[in-house]
Amino acid sequence: MGTRFLPATKAVPKELLPVLDTPLIQYVIDEARDAGIERMIFVNHPSKSAIEHYVMHDIALGETLCQRGKNKLAQQLHDAALDESKHDIVFVHQHQPLGLGHAILCAAEHALPGAVAVLLPDDLILSGKGCLSQMIEAYKTAPVDHMLATLEVPRETVSSYGVLSIAKHDNALAYCDGLVEKPDADLAPSTTAVVGRYILDGGIFDTLRRQKPGAGGEIQLTDAIAADIGTKSVAGYRFIGKRFDCGSKDGMLSAQLFLAQQDAQFAHVIGDFLSANQQMSVA
């Protein structure tokens, strides 16, 4: 529902909120394409038709831009969008907000055989090689069924994450014997937290079908993965990159500032702001 970004998300789905000029969902589309994902399944809500409109190539808009001499912009939009003649795309609806696990289950009948990847647009991960590409490369050789992207977080923030109980480390992998959703800081088994990238054995759908509602009365993906521990190997993957929680205002602002700082065209904006702030502090 994007409640933390109301009133903006009353009209604009949070997945379409821009980081500078690029909507959050575009980052995960590009990450999935770069990783060679064969079929993209978008789990959406009927009220968010703007997402489907954004994702797909808009032929009429492209033609209008070309007629107005904006060919470069038209090409950029064409390259960003998905084309059904070139990409295997499915849209499904989750009619009620019953949790991430339930959202994934909505995609079950459309998933291809084998492992599936899950990407959450709220988590913006910037890296040279995409986080999912890194994970797929590791997944191909590691003896693991479920692989979860992880990072170390301050202990006082663990209650915002799913947290691993770690049995052993193996380079970038942390094999776990337990997984706890949003534990109290003093009860958390570690500070290794799960963020929004997963590679899951196809059997996760059967586990989710059996999964009872957990925190908030929702079907939690974390609970389903935890239920598989013992019969399936589960490991966290320490990716290389910088992650921003763009489901929060401070995370979104941090992402905006970080990317603006990397772009020369915004150097004067950052410089003017810092200069003015310094002058105000002196005054």
Automatic annotation (TrEMBL):
It is an enzyme of class 2 (transferase). Residues 2-261 form the Nucleotidyl transferase domain. Keywords: Nucleotidyltransferase, Transferase. It catalyses: alpha-D-glucose 1-phosphate + UTP + H(+) = UDP-alpha-D-glucose + diphosphate. It comes from the Bacteria. GO terms for molecular function: UTP:glucose-1-phosphate uridylyltransferase activity. SUPFAM superfamilies: Nucleotide-diphospho-sugar transferases. Belongs to the UDPGP type 2 family. This is UTP--glucose-1-phosphate uridylyltransferase. It comes from Sulfitobacter porphyrae.
